[in-house]
Amino acid sequence: MSQVKVTYEVTYKPDSTESKFNKEEMSLKHFNGRSYFYNETKFKLDSLYDKVTAEFLKTGITPNVSLKYELNFGIYKDLTKQEIYEINNISSRNFIFKINLNKQIWNIGRDTKKIHNYNCRKATIKFGGRLWEAWFTDEIPINDGPYKFFGLPGLILEIYDTEKNYNFLAIGISKQNDNFKLSSQFIRTSQDNFIKLKNRLINDPALFVRESIMKRNNVKMKGTDGNNLESSELYDRITKEFNYFIKTHNNPIEKNTTWIR
What we know:
This protein is of the alpha+beta class. The protein is about 25% helix and about 35% strand. The chain is built from 4 helices and 12 strands. The two termini are about 35 Å apart.
């Protein structure tokens, strides 16, 4: 089975100081040596947010749309070329860039168990400041897995860090009959430039909104209550919400990075 779609249930703890866990579903589509790992909910909602943003810029009314996902990234692998690309979302803009990734060195053990009637073996790896335990099956001889993990002699059906902050568990496996294409709307950049942009946004969370409003000098803004909203109030609100998110999402998959949305 060289073409496969795997749906993973991702259980994760966004705040290391709390005991609460969140759950989301992400999918891995693998087709002849290339794969795409993504949050299906995110990409279904992207078109909605595009419409809402356009309406905001047209009317100045702040949209009241709830965020239904938090794992707002995608991973594209071309295993035939040993290349990995990250798709990251910032303020409803999707950026894609090639990442620098060292060779993944796995330690394959003797422990075994079954997942969905597939015989799996255990392997461990140090990645992103965490120790991970993976269960892979050579009954599906694809050296791929969720997130940035790959390189085992079989598909990874479960992987979790030993501190139990993140768990990726396959809950559905089916044949992938269709090839896939990445969206042409992704903004292509380099990893270095993306990090610079991310740092600018951390220092100035209202950056993108301010730039958009400055291009439309005549726009008059209103809050969800219908009252007029000064630009300074909007910027302050965005900054507070942004900083609160960072404070309550201090436990990213890879340590020593900042989780923003």
